[in-house]
Design a protein that fits this description.
single chain; four-stranded antiparallel sheet; mainly beta
């Protein structure tokens, strides 16, 4: 599990790696200066076979792979040049099943998607472009949807009400493409997690207007084989994240209602029906970012909450009933962190 936080300040051209102790207090904070201010997208993964980041500069047509030592200091920085400047969406996943991370790059205008991978030095060593993709995919997420120990991509086309499960071979070429039709066109948020505890991932789909949240799963061919709609959800959830918050080896979701100052922990049974819904009240209404990771090194997930206006970040953990058990505020954070990731 990722147990450190990476923070990027675009305006300052700086990036920090932050660690926490078991109580959720910052135990190490290492700032790396001299970063370019033009990174548009940053992904976290195991691109080099160890924890590392992919940084994409659209205007320059460049992508760097960077990694850090135990003290959080930069010890790998390799820039790959000649990238096209029209990648709209970048998604990380173990798409080739080699226990390291590749990136899926989607160019909407061209109708193309590439799988790119890197060697241990961060140099590009896999680059396969898949052509003929539709130009209307709005959301792309990755997960182990079919249970074969590698990631696939789920692509959602809101306009057409369709979602495809797409998989790739060891060279990055598409070898699975299953379109599921008849999806509603009003899903606002899509979150991936192992919600059923069955060794593969499902998606949580949230329809704000309808006040509904569905758990959807797929068979080994990418065909929809589970679709459980949970009604009566409030229509005011601003952010939803997934994680193993209870330490029970499956995912729950944390739903945050900024206006109400409340956050729910929701879990599901093996049919995808809600079987736990615990409301935690009294949350501040100014959290702007939520990042999930094993920040306290306790073998389960916590959430890092960042309030840029206050310059504060909390580490919050939950017990197996979904109640907050630790809530530690770290003050004195700069107010200009642009991107925060778990690494």
């Amino acid at each position: 599990m990722a147990n450190k936080a990476f923070l990027y300040d675009r305006s300052a051209g700086e990036a920090a790696v932050v660690s926490f102790n078991k109580a959720g207090r910052v135990s190490q904070d290492t700032t790396n200066k001299g970063w370019r201010k033009t990174w548009d997208v940053i992904l976290s993964g195991r691109f080099t076979g160890r924890s590392s980041l992919l940084l994409y500069d659209r205007k320059a047509g460049e992508a760097a792979i960077v990694a850090f030592d135990k003290q959080g200091k930069l010890n790998l920085d390799y820039t790959n040049e000649g990238w096209r400047k029209s990648w709209d969406t970048l998604v990380a996943g173990d798409f080739r099943g080699n226990n390291r991370t590749e990136a899926l790059l989607y160019d909407r205008k061209a109708g193309e998607a590439a799988i790119v991978g890197f060697n241990k030095s961060g140099k590009l060593n896999v680059d396969h472009t898949n052509k003929g993709w539709r130009k209307s995919w709005e959301t792309i997420v990755s997960g182990r949807f079919i249970g074969n120990d590698k990631h696939q991509a789920l692509l959602y086309d809101r306009k057409n009400g369709e979602a495809a499960i797409v998989g790739f071979d060891k060279d990055g070429k598409v070898n699975l493409d299953r379109t599921n039709k008849g999806w509603r066109k009003s899903w606002d948020i899509i979150v991936v997690g192992e919600f059923l505890g069955n060794g593969k991932d499902q998606v949580l789909l949230y329809d704000r207007k309808a006040g509904e949240g569905a758990i959807v799963g797929f068979d080994k061919s990418g065909k929809l084989n589970l679709d459980q709609t949970n009604s009566g959800w409030r229509k005011t959830w601003n952010m939803i994240v997934a994680g193993d918050f209870s330490g029970g080896s499956k995912s729950e979701v944390l739903l945050y209602d900024r206006k109400a100052g409340e956050a729910d922990i929701v879990a599901f049974n093996k049919q995808g029906k809600v079987n736990l819904d615990t409301t935690n009240s009294g949350w501040r209404k100014s959290w702007e970012r939520m990042v999930v990771g094993d920040f306290a090194n306790g073998g389960k997930h916590e959430v890092l909450l960042y309030d840029p206006n206050a310059g504060e970040a909390d580490i919050v953990s939950f017990d197996d009933t979904g109640r907050v058990e630790i809530d530690t505020t770290n003050s004195g954070w700069r107010k200009s962190w642009t991107i925060i990731l778990a690494i």
